[in-house]
Amino acid sequence: xxxxxxxxxxxxxxxxxxxxxxxxxxxxxxxxxxxxxxxxxxxxxxxxxxxxxxxxxxxxxxxxxxxxxxxxxxxxxxxxxxxxxxxxxxxxxxxxxxxxxxxxxxxxxxxxxxxxxxxxxxxxxxxxxxxxxxxxxxxxxxxxxxxxxxxxxxxxxxxxxxxxxxxxxxxxxxxxxxxxxxxxxxxxxxxxxxxxxxxxxxxxxxxxxxxxxxxxxxxxxxxxxxxxxxxxxxxxxxxxxxxxxxxxxxxxxxxxxxxxxxxxxxxxxxxxxxxxxxxxxxxxxxxxxxxxxxxxxxxxxx
Length: 302
Known about the structure:
Number of strands: 0
Structural class: mainly alpha
Shape: globular
Order of helices and strands: HHHHHHHHHHHHHHHH
């Protein structure tokens, strides 16, 4: 569908005539040609038209794609769904599709997508294909992320999916980069959610596996830094789950640095909030995580 056709559809739904929409922006004949697909339009004019319709570009594109998410969102959702359902066959299929696109078009982003899927597949099954993630490819990926001047939804989602590939020092540098270079998009809900996910996963990664919580902790300063980033994002009251998750991670952080009493209080507070909201599964998962931490701290020889 042409963009002009979508615009005409929206205009008619809002009960606005060609004359009313064009007034003060462009000629009626020009707008009519654009709606028919006989003429292109500049970004500036399109912006003014959408402002007059009280419509954002995101909303316009959502309508244009027949009320479906963008192809990029659909891709990441498909990968996440396959990963969460432990469907390695579907992950393999998605990876091969990205490799085909990479070979056909020579666009490196398809290569990065395939690498991300490979990481997720190997988390689920060490025998996932028999393709090893070459160190050179990992370096190329990190070089790409450092090179991008402004991080949007794609860079954040890609990094979040490949974070486990990297050494801790690289994760620390890239997560700082992600927070700083996505700054101008922080008011955009989709990007803000992606930044939040990156920061949460960075903290979890740096905390390390629970069976090593008794060992010397060397990332105290860095985790404190990333927690402050999350707090600076000013998670709204609507993002209740993220706020509870942050409370839990603050508690786990206290446990990791040796403040057992304060850590338990915070984590149990988060668990009780979830129970009161009847989020039983999330509360149970959080409770099991706490018990695992306490078990390994009390039995460091295991």
